[in-house]
Amino acid sequence: MKTILLQKDEYSISNDKSQLDIDAIHNFLSTKAYWSLNIPKEKVEVSIKNSLCFGLYKNSKQIGFARVITDFSTIAYLGDVYVLEEHRGKGLSKWLMETIMSFPELQGLRRWILLTGDAHELYRKYGWTDLADSTNWMELHNKNVYSH
Questions:
Q1: How far is the C-alpha of 39 from the C-alpha of 147, rounded, in Å?
Q2: Which residues of the chain fall short of a pLDDT of 70?
Q3: Calpha distance 56→139 (Å, rounded)
Q4: The domain 5-136 belongs to what CATH superfamily?
Q5: Cα 53 to Cα 15: distance, rounded to the nearest angstrom
Q6: Taking CA 122 as the corner, what is the angle to CA 28 and CA 67, rounded to the nearest 5 degrees?
């Protein structure tokens, strides 16, 4: 897999997992992300290990993240996308999405999927749409899995 490092002023994006700040990612996902509140750090570590990850940095400090679960052939799930609040409104989420959607090993997939409660307009800019027929989809969802 090709490692990328893109630079824009003091910001950068990389898919190099060794650069990820696991503590910072866990902190955001477990305390601020409505989809993964209270997620244990060990779960975050395993999810990162088994995904294609993109870190967003300001002067080497982790300020955003996204991960893709994929077979690199037919399907990809985009998840855990965030930019810290104090860095929003600067086009960074768009840059992150452009980077992910143009990543060479993710081209030609039959299907991309994601779940979002609040960023529909961001994803629509990159061709995402609502499900055409939700009757084909099923799920097994335990929204309280991280609650103790």
A1: 8
A2: 148
A3: 30
A4: Gcn5-related N-acetyltransferase (GNAT) (3.40.630.30)
A5: 5
A6: 45
Residues 6+ apart with CB under 8 A from 122: 93, 94, 97
pLDDT tens-digit series, residues 67-105: 999 999 999 999 999 999 999 999 999 999 999 999 999
| Whole-structure pTM value | 0.93
pLDDT of residue 148: 67
User: Closest Cα to residue 57, out of 23, 30, 85, 83?
Assistant: 83
Indicate the residue type of 17.
K
Residues 6+ apart with CB under 8 A from 55: 13, 14, 15, 16, 19, 20, 21, 62, 64, 65
